[in-house]
Amino acid sequence: MKFDKEEWKKKLEERLLEKFSVSLKDASPFEIYRALGETVMSFIARDWYETKKEYSKTKQAFYFSSEFLMGRALGNNLINLGIDKEIQEFLKELEIDYNQIEDEEEDAALGNGGLGRLAACFMDSLATLNLPGQGYSIRYRNGIFNQYLRDGYQVEKPETWLKYGDVWSVMRPEDEVIVNFGNTSVRALPYDMPIIGYGTKNINTLRLWEAHSIVDLDLGVFNQQDYLHATQDKTLAEDISRVLYPNDSTDEGKKLRLRQQYFFVSASLQDIMKNFKKVHGREFSKIPEFIAIQLNDTHPVIAIPELMRILVDVEGVLWEDAWEIVKKTFSYTNHTILAEALEKWWIGLYQEVVPRIFQITEGIHNQFKNELAKLYPNDTDRQNRMQIIQGNMIHMAWLAIYGSHKVNGVAELHTEILKNRELKDWYELYPEKFLNKTNGITQRRWLLKSNPQLSSYITELIGDAWIKNLSELKKLEQFLDDEKVLNKIWDIKIEKKKELVEYLRETQGIDINPKSIFDVQVKRMHEYKRQLLNIFQVYNLYQQLKQNPNMDFTPTTYIYGAKAAPGYKVAKGIIRLINDVAQIVNGDDEIKDKLKVVFIENYRVTVAEKIFPAADISEQISTAGKEASGTGNMKFMLNGAITLGTLDGANVEIAKEAGEENEYIFGMRVEDIDELRKKGYDPRFPYNNITGLKQVVDALIDGSLSDLGSGIYREIHSLLMERGDQYFVLEDFEDYRRKQREINRDYKNKISWAKKMLKNIANAGKFSSDRTILEYANEIWDIKETKIK
Ligand code: GFP
């Protein structure tokens, strides 16, 4: 976009006056942020309209996801429009601090972690590549909770990004639809967010649905002064889009989740069908030629019976014909092999919430049951294992595979595990449906925006084509022996570390040494991700430093950031444990210049943008076979951090791209774990034989560490020692510690370290979400570049 300073100034002044009756000079940062946002929206309006018009004529892909972890929009939008520097300059002339304006924006935190952030990166790539693709989800009023620490424990407070409305969304009342549940109906009101591509005029859309009641108020009841009940219907309806992942430990919570899923899926399909009919009338057999729908995990899988309902009940299509259409329209991405995430619904609850959809699901189940009986007449075990409804549970992953034409995992190893283990029966039945789509991240947010220093330097060295084609980074390899370049990359890292130090000082009052190694683990808190292994190693290191104060040691700062699911006690216990160790280590005068432990409160996209560029070590230490892909690992790599990881998920591909000698790979591989399991794993073996390990594990229960009486440390101890240590924390401890020592030694050699950094950056090209999205577009969705003029 061309930037005309006078025009922007005029627009901004007009907005401020119209909206807040304030002059530019007197406006508050919030008012300026709002006016800036509105100005951007007004400038892109025409292109957005043109894009929609153009896309309606061609095949489009719709990404159904219960999560979109978008983060902030202002900075990213300005960058993608190519006017970020100009705006910053222009504000500076007006003596307005751009950073302060940016800080007025709350993160749109409509997701938990990797799955939701992947969806957000995909949106950026679709728009940048001029691909007709749109996201659909829920406009949760409260995104993922804000995390605070009290006595080292996580405390959750509601997140309120919509407190003052949202400048990046446009309400579209003309597209409102009604979603019918068994005994009630609700209004689904869409809000559209523009997705601005980098260096293109195309503006894609993320459509988020908000739930409203059909009746606003029961006036009769209100007039009897029963105020609470007068608005009951309204509250019940609005609850659907109130929070991301309501606690589902109770039946009521489960019901609400199912209502959420059906709500957004039904609204989206009605919307898609309305637009389809506008162009193609009742030629429903053409649906797969014009519509591709990606089911992001099992959460939106209820879309399969819902599309059947629309076609059969509403449009009068024959069941067999409708099923053919459905199968060709949907595809499904699996993001995990953990059983807890492969959703199953109890039929009683499903029947109560969506009775008609239950009948249709049963119909699909019976149809498949008959097919199975014919396919495997002599294998009733297999028939039973593959049933969609088993006992009284509906298996959503099975429904997804049966009702889709493509099924993908998110990294090579993960897809192999799906094919050969977890979904083996299915792969044998439908080998042609399975394929891999290794995840990716957008370099626009995760390098260009978050690391302007490294970005400009890369551009200085090889030009700026990497912004749209990340494999260009490979050209950096010509500088692997250039000490000037290596020194500069090192210096940029130090600068980014200093920025993080400053941020932590301001926000958490912590002081850290920018010259120490920044060893970082940021991701959802989960046992399989093994933050526990990390903190055990730190505690052991602390003891070693106490015993041997003259030990040769490069100062190291261990940095953690993670939210634990509110009902996940063990994960919350590990957060306390990290903070407990932090307090001991950081409070010890003998140690404090060598070792520091920092837990970053309320980890979120905006903070992540400061952390990735500042990291030296990227901790990716999940139990082999458990992490489907990981995407944080890619953001670290792109910013020159070295992976300390197991051969799990996309770590395998990272090591392959950059060379295993440029990462720190340790621990058991999937095969080793199989073997050990077969032999019988006894955690008491490493516990008794690895020096120092017993002391660390026992610290949980011998009074050295304290959970303040909650009993959670004893629980963790028992998970390790009595309940089989199912994530092999103790088994992998020694190898992990060995790699930590190697890192500590290697970091001293600045040039060889910087060479490793450069090797990683230069080989991060594969991990652009542009590459991933092009693969989806070509191999699954069959959509084509559609550029507006
Ligand atoms: C999940 C998986 C990750 C994977 C992402 C995106 O993310 O391995 O990279 O989905 O596919 F576990 P989390 O919810 O764990 O962050």
TrEMBL record:
Catalytic activity, reaction form: [(1->4)-alpha-D-glucosyl](n) + phosphate = [(1->4)-alpha-D-glucosyl](n-1) + alpha-D-glucose 1-phosphate
Cofactor(s) needed by this chain: pyridoxal 5'-phosphate
Enzyme Commission number: 2.4.1.1
Keywords tagged on the record: Carbohydrate metabolism, Coiled coil, Glycosyltransferase, Pyridoxal phosphate, Transferase
Top EC class, one word: transferase
Pfam families per record: Phosphorylase (PF00343)
Keyword Cell wall biogenesis/degradation belongs to the record: no
Coiled-coil ranges from the UniProt annotation: 84-111
Domain of life: Bacteria
Ranges that cross the membrane: none
Keyword Transferase: yes
Function: Allosteric enzyme that catalyzes the rate-limiting step in glycogen catabolism, the phosphorolytic cleavage of glycogen to produce glucose-1-phosphate, and plays a central role in maintaining cellular and organismal glucose homeostasis. Phosphorylase is an important allosteric enzyme in carbohydrate metabolism. Enzymes from different sources differ in their regulatory mechanisms and in their natural substrates. However, all known phosphorylases share catalytic and structural properties.
Family assignment from sequence similarity: Belongs to the glycogen phosphorylase family.
Name of this protein: Alpha-1,4 glucan phosphorylase
Organism: Fusobacterium simiae
